[in-house]
């Protein structure tokens, strides 16, 4: 049986929803504008982006097109989520056979072994299909995917990036990780930097609803904050706005858990 994370979504669907949300953020479009530019309604996009309904592959393609991103990765995630949704994903066994299962008739033991081997083979086949999609550039339905487009040009630089989203400004295409930190509660934090944009930001994942991450801007102003608002966000990468930062600048971020049990800060030099 597939385990369901705290947010209520199986991990396959949660990863797809997180990816679609990131693409939608990159477009800068509202749900109404998204509906106007695609063949799907505003209410449909609301369901897709909140994990209430699995989107059709066509919706994934259209969102990739609007975001100017290659569709191969998202379609691979969609394939995994669709397999889970439809029940085609092979069940995995998490507990080892007991002594009593190893005893008894030879046919029963052989049947159990064959069932386990079949499950492993099914999972391997699923993983191989996703790998082939990513490596060969084929779409899930067998039609060739468009050749990956060149990385989109950043939409801001230095001070012009101050307080802006790294995804919307296309600064997250090829960033550098300046520092990583694991909190006492198990959340993962990173300080990221884009040389092309001359700006840095912080991101978090494996968090809980209500957790908050703050980034101190280079000019010493009010911190830029990102907060976990729902279960899908808790399973996804969530980013702070950016601060302009040149070589030698120190970037600092502080994590404030929902439990209120103190905060943890870390920094890095560009």
Automatic annotation (TrEMBL):
Q: Does the keyword Membrane apply?
A: yes
Q: Which keywords does this chain's UniProt record carry?
A: Membrane, Transmembrane, Transmembrane helix
Q: Which domain of life is it from?
A: Bacteria
Q: Name one Pfam family in it.
A: DUF2690
Q: Which residue stretches belong to region Disordered?
A: 85-107
Gene3D superfamilies per the UniProt record, alphabetical: lambda repressor-like DNA-binding domains
- Answer whether the UniProt record assigns the keyword Membrane to this protein: yes
Query: Transmembrane residues, as ranges?
Result: 112-135
Q: Which InterPro entries match?
A: Cro/C1-type_HTH (IPR001387), DUF2690 (IPR021224), Lambda_DNA-bd_dom_sf (IPR010982)
The entry's protein name is DUF2690 domain-containing protein
To which species is this protein native? Streptomyces tibetensis
Starting at the broadest rank, the lineage of the source organism is: Bacteria, Bacillati, Actinomycetota, Actinomycetes, Kitasatosporales
């Amino acid at each position: 049986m597939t385990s369901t994370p705290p947010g209520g979504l199986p991990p396959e669907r949660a990863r797809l929803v997180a990816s679609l949300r990131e693409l939608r953020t990159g477009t800068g479009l509202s749900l109404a504008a998204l509906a106007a530019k695609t063949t799907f309604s505003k209410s449909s996009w609301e369901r897709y982006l909140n994990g209430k309904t699995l989107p059709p592959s066509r919706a994934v393609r259209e969102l990739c097109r609007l975001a100017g991103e290659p569709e191969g990765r998202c379609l691979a995630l969609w394939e995994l989520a669709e397999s889970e949704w439809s029940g085609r994903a092979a069940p995995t066994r998490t507990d080892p056979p007991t002594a009593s299962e190893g005893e008894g008739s030879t046919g029963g033991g052989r049947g159990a072994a064959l069932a386990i081997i079949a499950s492993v083979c099914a999972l391997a086949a699923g993983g191989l299909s996703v790998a082939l999609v990513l490596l060969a550039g084929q779409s899930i339905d067998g039609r060739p995917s468009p050749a990956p487009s060149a990385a989109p040009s950043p939409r801001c630089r230095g001070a012009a990036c101050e307080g802006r989203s790294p995804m919307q400004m296309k600064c997250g295409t090829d960033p550098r990780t300046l520092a990583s930190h694991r909190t006492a509660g198990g959340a993962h934090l990173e300080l990221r930097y884009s040389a092309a944009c001359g700006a840095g930001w912080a991101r978090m994942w494996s968090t809980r609803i209500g957790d908050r991450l703050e980034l101190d801007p280079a000019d010493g102003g009010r911190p830029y904050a990102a907060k976990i608002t729902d279960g899908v966000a808790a399973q996804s990468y969530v980013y702070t706005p950016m601060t302009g930062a040149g070589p030698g600048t120190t970037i600092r971020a502080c994590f404030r858990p929902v439990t209120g049990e103190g905060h943890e800060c870390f920094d890095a030099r560009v």
